[in-house]
Here is the input.
Amino acid sequence: MSTTDLVVDTQDIEFCLFEWLQIDQLQKFPKYEAFDAETLGMLVTEGVKFAEEVIAPTNREADRAGCSVVDGQAKVPECLHGPYEQAYQLGWAAITASQEFGGQGAPAAIGLALSEGILGGNLALGMYFGLTQGAMELIESFGDDELQQTYCEKMTSGEFTGTMCLSEPQAGSDVGAARTVAEHVEGKKYKIKGSKCWISSGDNDLASNVIHTVLARVEGDPPGTRGLSLFVVPKIKVKADGSLGEANDVTLVSIEDKMGIKASATAVLSFGDNDNCYGHMLGERGDGMRMMFQMMNTERIMVAGMGLGIASAAYQNALAYARERIQGSHIDSHGQEDAPSVAIIEHPDVRYSLTSMKARVEAIRALLYGACFIEDKLHSTEDADERQELDDLFQILTPMCKGWACETGLDIARAGMQILGGVGFTKDYPMEQYYRDLRISAIYEGTTGIQALDLVGRKMTTANGRLFMTLLGKFGQLYETHKEHPRLGPLFACWKEGYDKMTECGMTFPEMIKERGLSGAVLYATPFMFLFSTVTAAYFFLQQGLVADEGLEQLKAENSVTEEGLAQFIQENGKARFYDSKLKTLDFFINITLTRYQAYAVPILNRNYTALDIEL
Here is the structure.
């Protein structure tokens, strides 16, 4: 293992998919009947191999080269062109896209496995794939036959890329303040005029066309988000026969000079400078935000995948470095003049940091894979009651996935840089780029604070708290079933303390509203989201622990292993070693990581309003 190469944790990914989730059970649904265990395993193995061997080697070069503007078009680093084409030719870039338009139609959880490798290998390149599929799915869901036939297949094949255009200089998080306007021409054809900024992958020379999904207000429609409609606006007009026509009066004004993801052209775009920009309305007039939220929720899971992909890569790199770097004698040899120097992985502080990184990476993976599997079942079942429950769970999990995975991933990358020490701050190692590239994830698709507001202000209150109570019900079922587990019982007890505190916080918010209005409750929305997310990740992680414990006990029985010979057996048997490591990592996450996050409950339960009262 190299301290500079990408290493994807295929063993843990396969454990999540095939032993814990048993994803091949999806084959019973018509949507996934072609995906048996062998096919799914091949997709993971070959997809991860592609990420490690084709995508990842471009990361450093693409970062150093960055994007440029030549003759009004964004130019991406040349090293990305080959992997981009291969990713579409081999089907990796559109693995979950609809088979109707040329995608593989694989489950979302399998897509996450590939995204973990691709985003960890080159986050900027992965963004072109993700945004294109998100825009294509909007057209597939809400476009008429003509729009679908014009764009969907070409976007699935990578011939066209796609974007989402929401932000404007005065309308960032406050999307309703948008000033881009749409003037009706005929039918669903409109003239578009306005400016959009911070548009990820907003222009490029990877594809022959860029298809923008643009929020704009039809003249005369009300202010705010309820007056926004959604339009498909190609950079270059597409003729009836599918060939490219004339330019559509979409101007690349500039690309941003950014901290990270330098190979993704983040653009300022102007629409209709010459009064010749046309778009086609998606869905119904004034329904733009509802439709755009479909893409935003898809992108929020993708951005959460950034947190996972980079965090896992950072941990693997820090682990490799700690094994190789010789520095200082072991603390237990203190005072011995002839004590040999040891690898820094032998130092307790470094071991603590690495274990903390490992535990949080595996917890993020548990949360995200659990959420994606719920999404897969949601889109497969025909049982209305089950579909409602799955939808409730997926809706409440989405802001936790995005908010917590990205913030925790950033902290893991920071910890990795600390383990590398001074060299981690240099460009000789990938750690500093991991941090720079991932930093935007906590801002994308709604900042961490907005995810917290969505969780506390919308998801937990929807349908009189039904979503919240549905998830709490799942917590209770798991605890009651396994609280007496011979090995994991104490961990379940510790977890229950955490989710009891989290629940108490949730029940305290109404009192805070009575005392200080909505400001009193949302003051601690972000800390509460961190606590809730950690408890929820532990819920999924404990399920993995049950599977690992059962697997280890089965191996012991099959090999007639005694308690006296267990330690040696674990050292010699790779599968047993994995299960043992999983159980110890779970122990660390529950007893150390979760208990630390419980501190976020203190000011909520004490109803402390200092931040509202202090003069700033």
In short: Residues 226 and 290 are 9 Å apart (CA to CA). The chain is about 55% helix and 10% strand. The radius of gyration is 25 Å. The mean pLDDT is 95.
